[in-house]
Design brief:
- By secondary structure, the protein is of the alpha/beta class.
- The protein has eight helices and seven strands, in the order αβαβαββαβααβααβ.
- The chain has one domain: 3-Layer(aba) Sandwich (Rossmann fold), CATH 3.40.50.150.
- Strands 3-2-1-4-5-7-6 form a seven-stranded mixed β-sheet.
Length: 271
């Protein structure tokens, strides 16, 4: 990952935490991870979720975060050190599809917006998570699954959602069985028991504080980039009017603005 892309990732991850942080915390709490346990945060990024996981399992527990980017991990280590949790969280470089751990190492494994949510080999990654978790341990994967960001304009938002960018990461032509929301099937194929799925909702409403407003602005930019060529003239004009920050009708300036989004979490137990 180049310097510019690394800096961009770190900036976006930090900004989005203001919007989605409490929802991710709700998912982690729902797992009821054992106090004092040891777990893996696969695809940990800058370690924001590792911090939440460590808080959930308490001072006797330990979280190992793993990511493929050395630069991103270094940023996370500095942050964790500044908070004073280096003894409870370790961040290491590695590939989820080839985890550098012995089998049956962890009490649980967690991955958010990573395993099952990109163009990589989901099956290989999930097999590795199962391999390194002890019998009886939990494997959980979670990802952003929907949003409604344009209140009052459902038709336009539906059109945006049908564009090639709007349906990402479920690209056209992809096997439906590989869609993230089909993860219960993946878990059964891996032999996991006590499988389950749950949706968690987050929301934002006016008046928006600066951090949440910036996160929503970045989300609109990220969710529908380069879509104008796929829109009709009418929809293109309305999209520009509502979704460009320099427009007098920018959607986030509505005095009654409201948006919501969902995350979906799948979990199972290793027999």
């Amino acid at each position: 990952m180049g310097k510019n892309s690394t800096e961009s990732y770190i900036r976006i991850a930090s900004i989005f935490d203001a919007l989605r942080g409490s929802t991710i915390q709700d998912m982690i709490m729902a797992l009821q991870l054992p106090a004092g346990s040891s777990g893996l945060d696969a695809g940990c990024g800058i370690g924001l979720q590792s911090l939440r996981l460590a808080g959930e399992i308490g001072p006797a527990g330990h979280v190992t975060g793993l990511d493929i980017s050395a630069e991103i991990l270094e940023h996370g280590r500095k942050n964790i050190k500044n908070i004073g949790l280096s003894n409870r969280i370790s961040l290491i470089e590695g590939d989820i599809a080839r985890l550098p751990f012995e089998g049956n190492t962890f009490d649980w494994a967690w991955s958010c917006d990573c395993v099952g949510y990109g163009p990589w080999d989901t099956q290989a990654m999930l097999k590795e998570l199962v391999r390194v978790v002890k019998p009886g341990g939990t494997i959980a994967i979670a990802a952003w699954s929907s949003e409604r960001l344009l209140p009052g304009y459902p038709r336009l938002e539906a059109r945006l959602g049908a564009t090639s960018f709007g349906i990402a990461p479920f690209v056209q032509g992809k096997d439906p069985a590989l869609h993230f929301n089909r993860a219960l099937g993946w878990f059964r194929e891996m032999g996991l028991t006590e499988t389950g799925a749950q949706a968690f909702a987050g929301s934002a409403h006016a008046p928006l504080d600066d951090d949440v407003r910036q996160a929503l602005k970045e989300l609109i930019d990220m969710r529908w980039p380069n879509v104008e060529s796929e829109l009709s003239k009418e929809d293109r004009e309305e999209f520009r009017r509502l979704c460009r920050p320099d427009s007098p009708d920018f959607i986030l300036d509505l005095p009654d603005y409201f948006a919501f989004f969902t995350y979906t979490m799948f979990q199972g137990r290793k027999p």
